[in-house]
């Protein structure tokens, strides 16, 4: 007797968030990619970023500050040049959006502490972070062990070593008005995106629906909305005439909003901002990706258990800042770091390093600037006040 052969694919495990998303979609209909990303990354109970440490070799991905201290040190030096060229303001603050483990800030502050005249003007360090787990890791890194009682979830901590005050904030709106250094590194790539596909009658939004079919291992799938999207619903949706039928694009209204907030803040208070991320200087489509344990997955795999990100459209960020600040770049991370003297810094570190550490220093240096590694993929965009004299260092 012939035994029937089942070709059904086994579905991946149901994460708590998958169950929640399926219920929501079955009740209310398909959701936007932006809503899917928001839930997958920042859902209070099951969001990927709401857990503890996801960074570094043992996490799901590794960032430039985690590769080498030289990265953060040179960012600090770049901001020092802006402090000097903008007249050495006497009270400044440092702001980072999505500070990760706090490594970038730690390296920046250490480099800046060698320039006492500037360092003594710092009147607060503000970390924009919504994850309670990451806030704990940042406090430990930057302020030492303050994990007792009341201070476990403290929004303000004074560092004993130098008296610097660290503030944890939920958004840029909470930052007091003052000349500021504002840095974001791998922040905008995690901002929710909306996806669109061009059909004969206009742009159709790509949504996320339930997939109960037996020929997919996932519980969710992408599909195009039945009707076209009204241009009024998305003011930054480009005109279809510039594209051909079947083209896909991604836009991030949230990125536009935050980038404009940064630009307006610098316009109103003075300062400088660096946006460091991977992406292009034009609109793209289908760049959404999931990563878990340093491997890429389908973006609808294991929601809540994998990181999600999409390429940044730097042109879009520059447009959001139009009329508010001068924008420079994007330039490659390689050009930025080499102009600021990463090779010289490497030589200094090698002089004092034990033999086993030298190899790590050299390989980290190569990883940061090599075009086939991080050197070309990552770009750097600068905002400085209108009326500032001279082009910022590295952007000439």
TrEMBL record:
Record-listed E.C. numbers: 2.1.1.320
Residue segments, region Disordered: 214-239
Alphabetical keyword list: Methyltransferase, Mitochondrion, Transferase
One GO process term, biological-process aspect: mitochondrial respiratory chain complex I assembly
Transferase in keyword set: yes
Pfam family, one: Methyltransf_28
Cross-referenced SUPFAM superfamilies: S-adenosyl-L-methionine-dependent methyltransferases
Composition skew (Polar residues), residue ranges: 223-233
Principal place of residence: mitochondrion
GO molecular function: protein-arginine omega-N symmetric methyltransferase activity
Catalysis: reaction(s): L-arginyl-[protein] + 2 S-adenosyl-L-methionine = N(omega),N(omega)'-dimethyl-L-arginyl-[protein] + 2 S-adenosyl-L-homocysteine + 2 H(+)
Keyword Transferase: yes
GO cellular component: mitochondrion
Subcellular localization: Mitochondrion
Function: Arginine methyltransferase involved in the assembly or stability of mitochondrial NADH:ubiquinone oxidoreductase complex (complex I).
Family: Belongs to the NDUFAF7 family.
Name assigned to this protein: Protein arginine methyltransferase NDUFAF7
Organism phylogeny: Eukaryota, Fungi, Fungi incertae sedis, Mucoromycota, Glomeromycotina
């Amino acid at each position: 007797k012939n035994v029937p052969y089942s070709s059904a694919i086994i579905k991946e495990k149901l994460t708590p968030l998958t169950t929640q998303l399926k219920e929501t979609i079955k009740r209310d209909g398909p959701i936007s990619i932006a809503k899917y990303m928001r839930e997958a990354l920042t859902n209070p109970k099951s969001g990927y970023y709401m857990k503890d440490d996801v960074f570094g070799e043992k996490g799901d991905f590794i960032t430039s500050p985690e590769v080498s201290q030289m990265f953060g040190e040179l960012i600090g030096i770049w901001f020092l040049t802006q402090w000097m060229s903008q007249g050495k303001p006497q009270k400044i603050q440092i702001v980072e959006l999505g500070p990760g483990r706090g490594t970038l800030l730690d390296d920046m502050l250490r480099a800046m502490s060698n320039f006492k005249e500037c360092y003594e003007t710092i009147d607060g360090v503000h970390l924009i972070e919504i994850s309670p787990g990451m806030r704990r890791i940042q406090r430990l890194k930057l302020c030492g062990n303050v994990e007792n009682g009341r201070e476990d979830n403290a929004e303000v901590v004074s560092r004993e070593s130098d008296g610097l005050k660290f503030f944890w904030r939920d958004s840029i709106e909470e930052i007091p008005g003052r000349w500021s250094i504002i840095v974001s590194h791998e922040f905008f790539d995690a901002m929710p995106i909306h996806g669109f596909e061009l059909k004969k009658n206009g742009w159709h939004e790509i949504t996320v629906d339930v997939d109960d079919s037996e020929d997919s291992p996932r519980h969710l799938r992408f599909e195009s909305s039945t009707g076209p999207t009204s241009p009024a619903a998305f003011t930054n949706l480009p005109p279809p005439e510039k594209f051909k039928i079947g083209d896909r694009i991604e836009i991030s209204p949230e990125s536009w909003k935050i980038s404009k907030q940064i630009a307006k803040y610098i316009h109103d208070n003075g300062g400088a901002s660096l946006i460091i991320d991977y992406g292009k200087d034009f609109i793209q489509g289908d760049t959404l990706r999931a990563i878990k344990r340093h491997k890429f997955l389908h973006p609808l795999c294991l929601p809540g258990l994998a990181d999600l990100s999409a390429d940044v459209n730097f042109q879009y960020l520059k447009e959001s800042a139009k009329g508010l600040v001068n924008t420079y770049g994007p330039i490659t991370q390689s050009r930025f770091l080499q102009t600021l003297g990463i090779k010289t810094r490497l030589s200094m570190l090698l002089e004092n390093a034990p033999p086993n550490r030298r190899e790590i220093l050299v390989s980290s240096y190569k990883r940061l600037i090599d075009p086939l590694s991080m050197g070309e993929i990552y770009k750097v965009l600068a905002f400085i006040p209108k009326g500032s004299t001279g082009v910022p260092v590295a952007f000439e």
